[in-house]
């Protein structure tokens, strides 16, 4: 099992969209994949129409597995594709974890417990746009981090902070590494090209990569969640579905090579 997280404390950079597209790609290519919505906003959960499904254990209950808690079986979405949903209740964990010893380890322990039975090839963690106990749990649980980067004038600023936080966490979890950046919602404008150039230089300095292709801005991508579908099943012939297919192949190849 390898755990990949999508992290960027900046909101609306396509963490959730990219988590879904990659998990969908991995599952269609024979990898048993678990998607975990670890954001109290629950956008990933809503994207699959699972928000009101009381039968599914939410991320908060799933965390109880870390202490030998009750069964929390993920929901099966498709062949090879499973999901742990989330809702605002996860905010409780954010507050209560602060006082716990080993507070950063809960998510990883829960994932390891579940994996003993289910044997996943990949776990993909979608995270919330902030830097909280939840994010620290996501990073601690990760083998690799993928950073979605929306190329805009000020996008680069928050990335330095994220890398400093990751460096600090390496003291607790030395295996943690950034796999690379994914450029999302790319537009052919000068400010975007400048932002991509900045992040490409930064990635070189950090010995990580900027994955190709950049994901283009496309209306199909914004529409897919309201149809409760991944971009591939919603609009398989769209430019953005093609981008995500190629990205999926490149990210999977990078992960399989590790
Ligand atoms: N390539 C794209 N083209 C157009 N719209 C997109 C694209 N990728 C994502 N979107 C849309 O942009 C919005 C933000 O994307 P998403 O929810 O994936 O970002 P996020 O980083 O998970 O946000 P948050 O920080 O709130 O969790 C969503 O409405 C999504 O459908
Ligand atoms: Mg999100």
Overview of this structure, please?
There is one protein chain. By secondary structure, the protein is α/β, with parallel strands linked by helices. It contains eleven helices and eight strands. It has helices spanning 15-28, 43-47, 59-63, 90-97, 106-118, 133-141, 155-169, 190-205, 219-223, 231-234, 239-256, and strands at 2-6, 33-38, 75-78, 81-84, 122-127, 144-149, 177-183, 209-211. The longest helix is centred in the C-terminal third of the chain and has 18 residues, at 239-256. The N and C termini lie close together (12 Å). The model has no long low-confidence stretch (mean pLDDT 94). It binds adenosine-5'-triphosphate and magnesium ion. Adenosine-5'-triphosphate is lined by residues 11-17, 39, 41, 43, 129, 184-185, 215, 217-218, 221-222, 225, 240. Residues 11-17, 39, 41, 43, 129, 184-185, 215, 217-218, 221-222, 225, 240 line the site of adenosine-5'-triphosphate.
For this entry, give a set of tags.
258 residues; Rossmann fold; eight-stranded mixed β-sheet; 11 helices; 8 strands; 43% helix; binds magnesium ion
